[in-house]
Amino acid sequence: MLSVDNLSIKASGASLLNQVSFKLNSQELLGIVGESGSGKSLTCLAIGGLLPKTLTVSGQIVYTDANGQSYDCIPMTAELRKMLALKHFAYVFQEPLTALNPVQTCGQQLIENLKLVGVKGRQAIEEQLIALLKEVELYDYERVASSYPFELSGGQRQRVMIAMALAGDPAIIIADEPTTALDANVQDGILKLLKTLCVQKGKSVILISHDLDAVAKYADRIAVFYKGQIIETGPTQTLINNPQQAYTKALLQCKPNPDRRGHYLVSIDNGQAQLNTSAYVDAPPSDAQSILHIDTLSKTYTSKIGTVKALNNISFDIKKGWCTALIGESGSGKSTLSKILVQLEASTEGQISYQIGSGQLLSSQVQMIFQDPFAALNPKHRIQTMFHEVLIKHRPDLDHQGRITHSQLLMQKVGLQANDLEKYPNAFSGGQRQRICIARALAVGPQLLICDESTSALDLSVQAQILNLLKQLQVEEGLSLLLITHSMAVAAWMSDYLLVLQNGQLLEQGLTADLIKNSQSAYTQSLLSHI
Hints:
Blueprint: E1 2-11, E2 14-24, E3 29-33, H1 40-47, E4 56-64, E5 70-72, H2 78-87, E6 89-92, H3 96-99, H4 106-116, H5 122-135, H6 141-146, H7 154-165, E7 172-176, H8 184-201, E8 204-209, H9 212-218, E9 221-226, E10 229-235, H10 236-241, H11 246-254, E11 266-269, E12 272-275, E13 290-303, E14 306-319, E15 323-327, H12 334-341, E16 349-354, H13 362-365, E17 366-369, H14 373-376, H15 383-394, H16 400-413, H17 430-442, E18 448-452, H18 460-477, E19 480-485, H19 488-494, E20 497-502, E21 505-511, H20 512-517, H21 522-528
Helix pairs in contact: 4-5, 7-8, 16-17, 17-18
């Protein structure tokens, strides 16, 4: 159905994509994997003629419809682009909350799409609306259609996006990182739905992801991108079981695995697997003191539509030098709990006891690292300026030169260069920005670091680097970690103690190794199945 031959893209003479070639067959799910900046999204935007005009595009992209009519997609006229967008190609983007209009109900947005593709008449539109929502397994279609995007879960919003993509009955669906920030169970449901569209509805799907394991479960073939090129492609099982390229082998080894507890994760450097051969002490002291005690904590939100109990009688301890993982799906209360712990929100009931230095600011002892390092750093300030803001408040004992020296040491501790302090955030990759966020959090010498989904949006290779760094800080400096995640694989490798949260309730807790072997909750067992 689609043939891409020697596709190259340049910006101001610099090569962004270099002679990429692949084919997409009828009723096939093609997985495209690779780290950020490898050219995955550029390739798929080129297919729909969605690239900025400032880029130079060469090569050939030929789409052949069901009637055998072929279209050259590179010298595309505006009329052809509109026709293909309405009837043949459809995109599903990474963040549905951004892609959907926040001031229109999901039903209104679907109706707009149906009108665009030529559905006429109130009854016909209503029937098609219901059929689309049912097709993406949103059977509570009346509630979904009348809801605004913020009133739906992440998985439901992504299903609405897929329903909108299906409005014109496209032949090809291009899904660009559609499950990056979703929980394991929800992610599996979305990918299963895309596969069903291939098998039962005759669609062809291009699935872009940096998660090779997730793609491998549903893709018929996989193409591996690296630095603007396809370095390896083939049937899924052949590529997974017998990869030929060093980069592909390294990608397969990057995923956190509980069998590697006590050893650092494989990371990637210049396309090659890099293994930190030094082992670490897997078990922190069992008699470690508690630095944080939470007792029957509850949080209730009240609005015009009623009350929601985001947290319900939560009790647990965080011990000094331990990594405690808090795992649960979106909406389970994980982020609400983290905001309460750093006093960004107040609890409704219960108590929190901090065993920290007397007379010290809580913010100097408890620091948070957020999910998105792009949003966490001020783009207008140099890194040194952001570090100085923190140190002036929390380290008044340091003079100007002392602050510079301290900042340089922090940068080196997280694997960056001292002269990086003079740069702005846009000079760094996503993984480097997250390292800077960690360094800034460490600037005040905290006892507890709260990591709120701090690796969920990163490539597997970069995720491995950040997890290794956090584990090293825990082991070598005795730092306590609260790791908030929806990835059981990350929690199983990283944590010493595990808390499982669902719908605001703590289903079970215990030593991670014990819960992996003998979990009592069906929900925990379903999460463990995704390791």
